[in-house]
Design brief:
Mean pLDDT: 81
Oligomer: single chain
Shape: elongated
Number of domains: 2
Distance between the termini: 40 Å
Strand content: 5-15%
Low-confidence stretches: 5-10, 129-142
Radius of gyration: 22 Å
Order of helices and strands: EHEEHEHEHHHHHHEEEHEH
Length: about 270
């Protein structure tokens, strides 16, 4: 297995990867209205190529609009990075930035939090001798004593592998783990495989979200986008009219309908 060092290209996609449509679900508050008028949604960190997010998120926590955008035009206007859910080198780089976003760990310690959470996942996947209670005990020790993870940043997969080997070296003692095997003596390549297995298992299930990162947190909305506005908020019909009368949107680019109708109608 080739084990590259350095940062993978942030673009992380080719023209063939660009979907027909991108989707965004959000709250139609005053800020969103102003952003839609300017056709730039500020603070948006991700969009999806999976229509399933409409059914999953519309109506949740007050989210009342869906934006559908043509894929090629959206990719041309925006600084996008496609999340590579099955690529451990990508997930580990840059202080595990993409991985931390997927599970909601924020701030400078996000990468370390993800790294510490890999213990039981990686051990179970690799068939190392941590089973049942021993995995939980071992992972618990790693979470409490974070010395291998408290350095400023996790550089890449190789750095992550060596930090987990250090954890095994610190806590792998026979009195604490009766079935202990000294895996810390395994070569670096083994540990790269160990954390890679954990990353693939932990984040493989997120692939259905089809998320693409907006690298500058500014979603530029192409002119052929369509805005769906749900009627569960009585103000939303008025907001839709404002977007047409004042906000510069064409009336045929906005649909106002019930939540169920939007979930059924968005393609």
């Amino acid at each position: 297995m080739t084990m590259p060092r350095g940062v993978l290209l942030e673009r992380s996609f080719s023209a063939a990867d660009i979907p027909k449509t991108f989707y965004v679900v959000g709250r139609l508050d005053a800020k969103a209205l102003g952003d839609l008028q300017n056709r730039t949604l500020e603070g948006v960190t991700g969009i999806s190529d999976d229509r399933g997010i409409v059914r999953q998120f519309l109506g949740s926590q007050g989210r009342g609009f869906v934006l559908t955008m043509p894929g090629p035009a959206t990719a041309k206007l925006n600084k996008l990075s496609r999340i590579m859910y099955d690529n451990p080198f990508y997930l580990a780089q840059d202080n595990m930035k993409a991985a931390a976003r997927l599970i909601g760990y924020k701030g400078p310690d996000g990468g370390s939090s993800v790294a510490r959470s890999l213990g039981d996942t990686a051990a179970g996947r690799m068939g190392t001798p941590w089973h049942g209670d021993e995995i939980l005990i071992y992972d618990g020790m790693a979470r409490r004593h974070i010395a291998p993870f408290d350095r400023p940043r996790i550089r890449d997969l190789h750095d992550l592998a060596e930090r987990w080997r250090a954890v095994y070296r610190m806590f792998g003692v026979k009195r604490e783990l009766p079935h202990y095997v000294d895996l810390s003596r395994k070569p670096h390549k083994y540990w790269v495989g160990w954390v890679s297995a954990g990353l693939k298992v932990k984040f493989g299930n997120f692939a259905r979200e089809g998320e693409w990162i907006i690298k500058d947190r500014k979603l530029r909305v192409p002119k052929d986008a369509h805005l769906w506005i749900a009627t569960f908020d009585p103000n939303n019909a008025k907001n839709a009219k404002w977007l047409v009368d004042v906000g510069g949107w064409d009336s045929d680019a906005i649909s106002v309908a019930s939540e169920d109708a939007i979930k059924a109608g968005v393609k």
